[in-house]
Amino acid sequence: MTFVRHSSSLILTACLVAGSAFAADDDAQRAAMKFFETDVRPILVNKCYDCHSKTKQKGGLRVDHIGYLKTGGDTGPAIVPGDPEKSPLIEAIRWKNDDFKMPPKNNGGKMTDAEIATLEKWVKMGAPWPEDGASKTVVTEGGFTEEQRKYWFFQPVAKVSPPKVKSDWVRNDVDRFIAAKHTEMKLNPATEADRHELVRRAYFDLHGLPPTKDQIDAFVNDKDPHAYEKLVDELLASPRYGERWAQHWLDLVRYAESDGYNADAYRPSVWPYRDYVIKSLNDDKPYDQFVREQLAGDEIAPNDPNVLIGTAYLRHPVYEWNQRDARGQWDIILTDMTDTTGELFLGLSMGCAHCHNHKFDPILQKDYYRLRAFLAPVHWRDDMKLATPEEKKAFDAQQAKWEAATAEVRTKIDAIIKPILEPKVERALTRFTDDLQVMTRKAPEQRDGLETQLAGLVERQMQHERDTFDPMKSLKTDEKKAEYKALQEELKKFDHLKPKPLMEAFVATDAGPKAPAVAIKTRKGEQQIEPGFLSIIDTNPPKIEPKGNSTGRRTALANWITRPDNQLSTRVIVNRVWQYHFGRGIVATASDFGKLGEPPTHPELLDFLTTRFVANGWHLKQLHRDIMLSATYRQTARREPNEVAAKTDPSNKYFWRFNPRRLDAEQVRDALLAVSGELDPQSGGPAGDGNATRRSVYTMKKRNNPNELLRALDMPAGFSSTAERQSTTTPTQALQLINGDWLLARARKLADRVSSIDDAWLAVLGRPPTEKERTTAEGFLKKRAGHVKPAPPKADSDDSLADFQENSPHERLLVNTSEKEGDEFTVEAIVSLDSIDVNASVRTIASRWNGGKDSQEAFGWSLGVTGEKSRYKPRNVIVQVVGEDENSNIGYQVVPSNIHVELGRRYHIAARVSCTGKNVTFTVRDLETPGAALQSAVVPMDIRSKISLGASQLVIGGMNKRSSASQWHGQIEALRIASGALPDKSLNANPERWTEGFITWRSADPLTSQFEWSGSDKKIAEANDPYRQAMNDLCQVLLNTNEFFYLH
Amino acid sequence: MPCHRYDQPTSRRDFLQTAGCGFGAVALAALMNEDKAAAATLAHRAAKAKHVIFLFMEGGPSHLDTFDYKPLLNKLAGQSLPSSFKPPITAMGESKSPILECKRTWKQYGQGGLWISDWFTNVAHHADDLAVIHSCASSGINHAGGVCSMNTGSVFGGRPSLGAWAQYGLGTENHNLPGFVVIKDSEATVVNGVRNWGNGFMPAVYQGVEFNSDGTPIKYLDNPKGVDRKRQRDKLDLLASLNRDYNATRQSNTELDARIKGYELAYQMQSEAPQAVDLSKETEATKALYGMNDEATAVYGRNCLLARRLIENGVRFVQLYSGAGSKWDAHKGIEVNHGKLCNAVDKPIAGLLTDLKARGLLEETLVIWGGEFGRTPMSEQGDGRDHNPTGFTMWMAGGGVKGGQTYGMTDELGLYAVEDRLHVHDLHATILHLLGVDHTKLTYNHKGLPERIDQNEGHPFTRLLG
After folding, report:
1. Among the three residues A521, A537, A561, which one is the final residue of a domain in this structure?
2. pTM assigned to the model
3. What's the domain range around B258?
């Protein structure tokens, strides 16, 4: 990003230059250490430690320090550094000498060739060992080295005064630290960004959205010397701020709205957590409180739904509902929770100490389990509601009334259902191993903590049987079905008594007041572990006070994490905020402050900001102000490295300019919707799909089925905590951006809004084009369209009224009628088709359907022709129906005629849909081939009723909702819909002869008030207007430019 | 960024790693610059295999009815698992069900005398090329965990897939095509969806790209409706021109240049990819060899032929799913289920091996056959078998493996791997080894840790190499 570019245009070359930045501060020592840590030590640990380390020293030999190896065991030195041939260790592992083979056959056996070669190489290199000379380097219990204890991150946050610097550039204390480092490194800062750059940067940074033209003008023209300060305050006060910054937190907690396993079940009640994060940020809730609520909201304020929802933090791990290995699954869930908690709050890769003491940081395996012990009592609850005690009370009272009134009916229903359902539930239980069955059969109050957790997982699978049980499918006889149905009708009569359901709470509590045991299992046995903190900084036992039915452990953990003097958590959050503003943290590895992470570039600044942050009450907004009002933040990004910077700081770690970076996936998508004028500002509530026009934070996040555009732009998948996003560039990404429907549609909308080149530039880039750009754009329009201004609108469209075409005024013909066609009807039309969908969508002749498949609103039908990739083969005339089947279940069905039509040919098509006849009768006649035979087909249909009772209106040439792919493209000369299945003799290829039909439309007739065209607002059909095409292209190109995609 | 502090750009791999640390342009370099010299420094060992075709039988094919002959099965049919066997945890809780007989007839093939059942008589003719590994094991007992594990080494999502690692390690030979291509045998979704060929924590450049078996091979490859190649060119020229002006004063940001090149590559891919999958250039005899003239074998045959063409065109890793959506999952009626599926793939796979060999490509192409796990000796629902991740069969051919013999062993009923047990981590290490890559050296720094494909647990099974 910041390296002097070589003349070669090969990116590979540029990369080598990038690489040299690392070469500059490396030395052979480090390479050797890396080799040792990644290659050598693992072999020693895995293959030799069992018999030759702290606990056992067979033959008097230890291999866990170079000193021991050099001194050797009973038979003298084990290695001679530099000379593998003289090193007994090498001789032993080669297995050449029958009396001297290591590792022995009964304990691992011969090493692989690669391993032997590695150790040979290592000895040959002189057997380099980290911190050679220190007596102990391997982390051992309680025996940390001096160096480890002195590691910067474990030191208390220092009270630092900003350095005194002489510089006009400095605006606040942040800058003093930056300037001091500049002086030290002979760097100098960049000039301040101009107001256009600043306003765009501030909006994207705080809101994740580009400023509108008015917003830009307001700031650029503001004469107030504090215009920028005002802007930052205004942006922080807007609810858009929380929507943007919540995204960062959601990345960190691996927020997703599905389970993430194969079934990837939707989590319908997790969204209130997302709204909770947004609201907490907008309210500037102190960070310590925010943390406490997420770790222990249930213990702190069990009756406050606005706090309780924070514990959804404990529910984000992936989950497989039908996993039989309940123990294994719970172990994995706890591991995930522990790892994430370590990374997120403490900035340490605790996961590394799961199986052994951390190899690089002074984190004991015991410390890992201590942290885990705080979380071990967690129980995933499905029986809680997000409601106040008053609301719950009112609900219960009303529910009791309903229950009392329906007791008799429900008893009767149970009598029918239970004999079939209970065996299914029992079968769900007996799939588990015996021990799990035993604990699940215990009464809940008899179970201990672990049993509660595991039985909970088992019971979910039993509950699944109940939830998916369909009596109408399972009941054997028609009498029973009728009886059941009657009872359900009876039950419905009491619906007026039913209280409005309370919001389900996707939260967690403890499994009980007594915590399940946590143990480290080794070959030697088990060691019980109590909760505790990192040994290297705090060996005091935590103060844990049980609360009600809870162990109180998580409150103790939360209190420790949020202690004002916690040097880990406080630095970690301050560094994260810095990172999100600058694209790089003071510690660049924001979730790993350990030795494998990057050292801080400005440790004093980090401590200064941390101290200030805690002293100011843990408010993030003040921290944003401190950072954004600095001269450091206000620097321009438009600066190439000078000679010094290129040499000493090519990657801009020391902030000699603002770091340009690609917008995040959500910023890109939101910006596209904003500039096309489509952004729906609605906040909160359940997420929608990616076709909706709400902000991306409200786009459904299914782990296995991520939004395609967002994922292509590096949105994390939501499986583990993500602290830093990738920024990748691939050809398939480019294909999606240049050929994909979604972006094309945004470009069209944008082109609708702008009337000139200058307009387009202002809308997309927030500035007018330069002279050169204007000339280039004009050249493009001229080349593509022959002129640079729109053609004068034609007086009126002289298109034939039979033409149905997308992006024209005649897209679809909406039919106004209150009459319903019923469950038996005829659709007859004279049509010709110009194209089919390139995918599997169906070009629609007529419909009463919204495209849904599983709700009563979706009841309906459509008649159309299949697309290129349809499983029914292309150009097949089909009917789709949604209604109730014979068991009164909602069903969707495709009824294919398997009659295939040709493009560009006139046809007379009729479909007679009959629920009573249980079929659809198709007839198709080619009207252009004289004497062409009538093709017909009678195809069975399973849907039995209600197909005209959905929420959609009748539409000719499309569906209820505009959808490009299902839009008819071609002619519909005439169409009628009649109730009942008309007899053959009533069908007629001449529409003038049509008599029956409650809807009859002929393109030749004047349009009556019963019909209403729906189409694009523009009178000029884009497809036929080269200027409009060229303008679309220009807009699409602008939406693909680097300037649009980059924050600078 | 999770850069290892000791990092030095001494090899291509190292600076590709820095790609993950924010130098996005570099990621593209992996696709754009076929730099054989650089790749050679990475291959830690001269290897024959340069390409992989992974034939993934999704749902778990029964090793007991195909490649792992267990006469004891039929002797104990109808009885419970002998008490000498540790009862396994099974997905459907069928550990106590009676043992199910194998209805196949078995014959020995080739000089190595490999036992192969009558469900794979065509593949059997290549017995002397097959290295049949009887001792595979996985951690996933369910499809989600199993398929994820076989693809990424972990039962959970979030890690890069084998194809991504191969690409990361070896780069690509043709920058106009993706280096890692996935083709399914139906529109059904593979368990877990696209993340099976995902890049995990690596840059997106390494992810697998799904090709359609028919029609336009890659999503969004075609110009939008109504846009001809000239109009597309004009658009891209305008874009490049605006981007160049913008970049002129920002040359130190190599990502910007990478984005310009990304669009150019996309444009080239638009013309090259359709040619790579254009089967009209293949003779009828070739198509027949793959079984494309028979409805039962046409789909997989077509995909196998596409795989050969993609390999020829420089694609590094091709994965062909059979039974996408767990179709091999024969919990009941294994005879009908497996009979149909084996028939659908037997001839195409044999055709692929024949064709690769005839063209001299088998030596440099590692063909892998297998699923996410095998199936139990115990029955389920009378005539099916449950999942068995504790011992199952995969085979490899080509790419330098020593064929005509078996490796490892399951117990007498094929339940547990008992000799030379190869966990998925070992299999992945072995596959990289066959590609000439030392899996312990192919690391990607993520969150401060040098991540490996095998989560530091695998060992290559070097005996496979002839």
Report:
1. A561
2. 0.73
3. 223-275
